[in-house]
TrEMBL record:
Hydrolysis of 6-phosphogluconolactone to 6-phosphogluconate. PANTHER family: 6-PHOSPHOGLUCONOLACTONASE (PTHR11054:SF0). SUPFAM superfamilies: NagB/RpiA/CoA transferase-like. It comes from Thiocapsa rosea. Its EC number is 3.1.1.31. Pathway: Carbohydrate degradation; pentose phosphate pathway; D-ribulose 5-phosphate from D-glucose 6-phosphate (oxidative stage): step 2/3. Residues 15-212 form the Glucosamine/galactosamine-6-phosphate isomerase domain. This is 6-phosphogluconolactonase. GO terms for biological process: carbohydrate metabolic process; pentose-phosphate shunt. One of its GO terms (molecular function) is 6-phosphogluconolactonase activity. It catalyses: 6-phospho-D-glucono-1,5-lactone + H2O = 6-phospho-D-gluconate + H(+). The gene is pgl.
Length: 228
């Protein structure tokens, strides 16, 4: 595993990244449901994937067999607009008939330690996933794995404190969980991501680089992020 497993794919527009993301999620869902009767997908938080989630709503899917998980969550009240699960609900899950028992959100309102312990136990019974979707922050973080933070190697979900991006308290999947899928899709759009993406491609040791190197990973980039 390593660099040869990572493909950086440049699209002509941010819309094309969203279109391709929705197409790939849908294709992975169809494959998984045909093979095993259910689709287990880890969704990315943040703003970047919301357009792709919105596009999924308009596709005919076998929603009853979708199971959704989160790569990370922010320790805020469940209805706080900055919660990843809240943004995903508005963009996707409130608009399609995925059974609510299939929405495996991180109970981050319980506090980072307790939520991480509970999520670790839950996903231990569900892994491996069929697809893992991730974003990247301007500092090269992915999920809530931030540069300079230690990540425990022996758990699947970990508490995060003093995150440089608000809020400081979070829960993140760890590399142990993020390795547990045949493929990862990392979405990188916008000029704000250009510097970190370029540093990653030059070989910088960033959290996103470490996660991408866990196995087969496609990085979908728009022109602003990719630069020339
Ligand atoms: O805080 C977070 O940041 C990253 C990137 O977010 P974006 O808004 O720039 O797309 C995101 O991937 C992560 O899930 C989120 O909690």
């Amino acid at each position: 595993m390593g660099e040869q497993m990572i493909r950086f794919i440049r699209f002509d527009s941010t819309g094309a990244v969203a279109e391709e993301t929705a197409r790939r999620i849908s294709a992975a869902a169809r494959r998984a449901i045909a093979l095993r009767g259910r689709f287990l997908c880890v969704l990315a938080g943040g703003r970047t994937p919301l357009t792709a989630y919105d596009r999924l709503v308009h596709q005919p899917e076998d929603w009853a067999h979708w199971h959704l998980f989160l790569g990370d969550e922010r320790c805020l009240a469940p209805d706080d607009p900055e919660r990843n699960s809240r943004a995903i609900a508005s963009a996707l899950t409130e608009r399609v008939p995925i059974p609510s028992v299939n929405l495996h959100w991180i109970p981050a309102e319980a506090g980072a330690e307790s939520a991480a312990r509970r999520y670790d136990a839950l996903i231990a019974t569900q892994m491996p996933f069929d697809l893992i979707l991730l974003g990247m922050g301007e500092d090269g973080h992915t999920a809530s794995l931030f540069p300079g933070h230690e990540t425990p190697a022996d758990v699947r979900a970990a508490p995060v404190h003093e995150a440089p991006k608000p809020p400081p308290d979070r829960v993140t999947l760890t590399p142990l969980a993020l390795a547990a899928a045949p493929e990862r899709l990392i979405l990188v759009t916008g000029a704000g991501k250009r510097e970190a993406l370029a540093a990653w491609r030059r070989g910088a040791d960033l959290p996103v680089a470490r996660v991408a190197a866990l196995g087969r990973t496609d990085v979908l980039m728009d022109p602003d992020a990719a630069g020339d």
